[in-house]
Amino acid sequence: MKITDLIKGKGTDFSFEVLPPKKGEGIDGLEQTVETLLKYEPKYINITSHHSEPVYRRRPDGLIEMEMVRRRPGTVAVAAALQYKYDIPVVPHILCNGFTKEETEYVLLDLQFLKIENLLLLRGDKVQEGCVGQGGKSHEHTTDLQKQVNDFNNGTFADGSPIPSPGVPFSYGVACYPEKHDESPNLATDISWLKRKVELGADYAVTQMFFDNQKYFDFVELVRKAGIDIPIIPGIKPLMSQKQLTSIPRSFHCDLPEELTTSMMAARDKEEQFEVGVEWAARQCKELMAHGVPSIHFYTTGRARSVDAVASRIF
Fold first, then answer.
1. φ/ψ (deg, to 5) at 13
2. Do residues 89 and 61 make contact, with C-beta atoms less than 8 angstroms apart?
3. What kind and span of H or E run contains 119?
4. Cβ neighbours, 10 Å, residue 66
5. Which residues of 268-286 are buried (b: 16+ CB within 10 A; e: fewer)?
6. How do residues 187-224 score in pLDDT, each as one tens digit?
7. Alpha carbon distance 269, 275 (integer Å)
C-alpha cells in the first residue's frame, strides 16, 4: 500500500526513521528502538542508506592509506527484517551519491522480491573522491534517480533492455527543505525543483528537520501557490543537548529559534537539556497537529528515548 494511502485517515499519523546498525553490530539495538515506539502505531518506518566514506589507516610500513568503507551497510536487509518481524510497511532510502546505476537496479530487484513497494529517493550527501559511483556511473540529482525508477516501473532496465517480468511498481517520496537546500540559490528555485520531482511522480515529500513551525507553514503556502498538491510531511527531531545547538545548524543548515536556544543554554544538566528539547518538540507537534498535518515523521538518529518522550505527550 502506498504511503499516501496509509496516511489518508482522520487526524495526524506517526512514523519514524531508523539507521542500520554499524558494520559488524547486531540488530538488537535497532529492534529495541522499534519496539519502544510500536505503541504509537507507526504507519511506516524509514530505513536510511549510507554510502562509503574514507577511513584512514596506518600501514605496517608506517604510511597512512585511505580506504572507502560503508560504516552502515544493510538497508535492504534491515527493511526486510523489520517488515517481516513487525508487519509494518518499511521505506528504504535510495541514494544517488555513492551508488552506481547498476547497483541501484539490483537494489530495486531485491526490494521487489521482498515485496517492499515504497521508497524514499534522495540525492544523499556528497561523496569524496575515490568512492564507487563517481565518474558518471551514479546519478547527479534526485530527478535522475526518479527517471531510473520510473523506467524500472515501466518495464525497462537502466541499459534500455526490457524487463521480462516486471513486478509491482514502486511508489516513492522525496525530500524538501522549508529553509531551502543549502546549495540552492533561493527558496523559489528550490520549490521549482520540488515541482519537477512531483511532475516526475513523487507521491509525497518529507521535510528536512526544522524547529520553527512558521517556516513550515510558510513553505507549504508557497508550495501550494506553485501548484504542488502532494502531502508535505513535517520531519521533527527533538534536541537533546547543548552541543546540538551548533552541530545541528552546521550539519542540517536549519535555524534554531532564539527562545529554544536560550532555554537550552539555561539548562543546568543533561536531564534539563533533554527536557527542554522534548518540550519544544512536543509544542511543535501539537501546533502542527492543530493545523491538520497528515503525519509527523520523527528522526530518531538511532535513539528512541527522546521520540518516545515526545510521542507520549501528543498521541
1. -90, 170
2. no
3. strand 118-122
4. 12
5. eeeeebbebbbbbbbebbe
6. 999 999 999 999 999 999 999 999 999 999 999 999 99
7. 10
